[in-house]
């Protein structure tokens, strides 16, 4: 079996991977890392959870020279959530080389980000809008940027960012190396690749191998007028720990969210028309386990990486088989099983057949019955996109008070990174991060609280030495 050492990585990068418990490359990493190390442009088609952040992040860290105090690499992401997640991972991969990774995204003070860029910034991870803003202010200069990554390119298309992406690419050197990663490859994304990538190597991970083995898949034949009533029945019978209900439109998302609330369910809606603050609130509530049911559009739910999601319900049949696989990949994660239920109207048999042909199996008719409890399975030897050793996110939680806040230049991503890197916790075991003016809060599993306090106490972040204590209930 291939190891990371077999891929020709340097000693500092191999040590960083050992630090976080990476043992063997995932398929996307095994296929993408060698051509990227050789300087080729690449098109990677892979779902979230396949290990694509490490696939582009590891070669990126090999490329960057920490002695050159200029921006040498840029990673574009469609959302701030993905921006923070990628930043955390890249900081881990580059820890042994002393590489400075700066996150820039909307909803945070731009002056703080400008100061971080002035102080260094070998690698910049940013949302499209904030990167454009910093470029227009000459706070971000790409003259020395030789490595550009477009992460979740299809979501950038869905959000209307492609024109700005092209402007950013035009602002970087024509001799750059470019990596484009996307779960799906619609025509506009293919056209973008043809215009801006030079003789790219294409790497594709077969989608069904990522999800089908861990997700039980069902169909419900239902009339359009009866779908809402049927959804309430399915949720009552399945009793999910957490469920994502996917719909096609923002209007349907709001309507269905209100309908389920009227039936007494604890539910929130997530779609692109919400403000960033509203989206953050919904995401934190869902990830923290305070909301069991999330009604969401495809764009809003991209990048959701929450291991406690037990069910996915396709209230509207997905627009394509690839989207179907991407949706049901929100459950059955981190060695757990999951259940997916798809509502099918009589006029949608052709879409159903396309999905079944794509995944190589027929969906089972759903009927009320005994609920199958999602249970952990034997840990897999291959670790993917997580920058730290996984701890289960079950059981009681303890809130910790941290003696630094916004006034000290602390950001949520910095706090998450400090806890994960010092205490070895996975992102799913770090919840409810709140950075206030002078201090911050973060919740961790109660059984890990003492160890986290010992590990993080005295650690320096953004020039502030942290003091940590448990908040008494």
From TrEMBL:
Domain Helicase ATP-binding, chain residue ranges per copy: 33-203
Keywords tagged on the record: ATP-binding, Cytoplasm, Helicase, Hydrolase, Nucleotide-binding
Gene Ontology CC terms, in alphabetical order: cytosol
DEAD-box RNA helicase Q domain ranges (all copies): 2-30
Region (Disordered): 372-394
InterPro entries: DbpA/CsdA_RNA-bd_dom, DEAD/DEAH_box_helicase_dom, DEAD/DEAH_RhlB, DEAD_box_RNA_helicase, Helicase_ATP-bd, Helicase_C-like, Nucleotide-bd_a/b_plait_sf, P-loop_NTPase
Domain (Helicase C-terminal): residue spans on this chain: 227-378
Name assigned to this protein: Unannotated protein
Species of provenance: freshwater metagenome
């Amino acid at each position: 079996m291939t190891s990371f050492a077999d891929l020709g990585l340097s000693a500092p990068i191999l040590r960083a991977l050992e630090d976080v418990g990476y043992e063997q490359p995932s398929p996307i990493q095994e296929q993408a890392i060698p051509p990227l190390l050789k300087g080729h442009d690449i098109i990677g088609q892979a779902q979230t959870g396949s290990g694509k952040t490490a696939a582009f992040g590891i070669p990126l860290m090999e490329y960057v020279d920490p002695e050159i105090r200029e921006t040498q690499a840029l990673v574009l992401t469609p959302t701030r959530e993905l921006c923070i997640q990628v930043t955390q991972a890249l900081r881990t991969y580059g820890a042994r080389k002393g590489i400075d990774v700066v996150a820039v995204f909307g909803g945070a003070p731009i002056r703080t980000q400008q100061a971080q860029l002035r102080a260094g910034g070998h690698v910049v991870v940013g949302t499209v809008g904030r990167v454009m803003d910093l470029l227009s202010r000459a706070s971000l200069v790409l003259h020395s940027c030789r490595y550009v990554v477009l992460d979740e390119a299809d979501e950038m298309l869905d959000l209307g960012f492609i024109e700005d992406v092209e402007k950013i690419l035009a602002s970087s050197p024509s001799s750059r190396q470019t990596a484009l990663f996307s779960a799906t490859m619609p025509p506009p994304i293919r056209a973008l690749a043809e215009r801006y990538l030079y003789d790219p190597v294409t790497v594709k991970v077969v989608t069904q191998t990522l999800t089908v083995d861990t997700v039980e898949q069902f169909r419900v034949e239902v009339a359009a007028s009866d779908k809402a009533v049927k959804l309430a029945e399915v949720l009552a019978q399945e009793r999910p720990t957490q469920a994502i209900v996917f719909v096609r439109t923002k209007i349907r998302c709001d309507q269905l969210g209100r309908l389920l609330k009227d039936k007494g369910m604890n539910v929130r809606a997530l779609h692109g028309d919400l403000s960033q603050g509203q989206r953050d609130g919904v995401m934190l509530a869902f990830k923290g386990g305070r909301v069991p049911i999330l009604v969401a559009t495809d764009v809003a739910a991209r990048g959701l990486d929450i291991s406690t999601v037990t069910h996915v319900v396709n209230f509207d049949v997905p627009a394509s088989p690839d989207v179907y696989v991407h949706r049901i990949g929100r459950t059955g994660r981190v060695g757990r099983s999951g259940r997916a239920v798809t509502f099918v109207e009589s006029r949608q048999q052709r879409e159903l057949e396309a999905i079944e042909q794509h995944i190589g199996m027929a969906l089972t008719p759903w009927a009320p019955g005994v609920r199958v409890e999602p249970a952990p399975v034997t840990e897999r030897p291959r670790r993917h996109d997580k920058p730290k050793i996984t701890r289960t996110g079950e059981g009681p939680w303890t809130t910790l008070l941290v003696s630094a806040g916004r006034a000290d230049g602390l950001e949520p991503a910095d706090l998450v990174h400090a806890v994960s890197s010092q205490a070895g916790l996975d992102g799913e075991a770090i919840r409810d991060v709140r950075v206030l003016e002078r201090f911050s809060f973060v919740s961790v599993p109660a059984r890990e609280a003492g160890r986290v306090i010992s590990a993080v106490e005295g650690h320096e972040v953004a020039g502030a030495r942290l003091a940590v204590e448990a908040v008494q209930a």
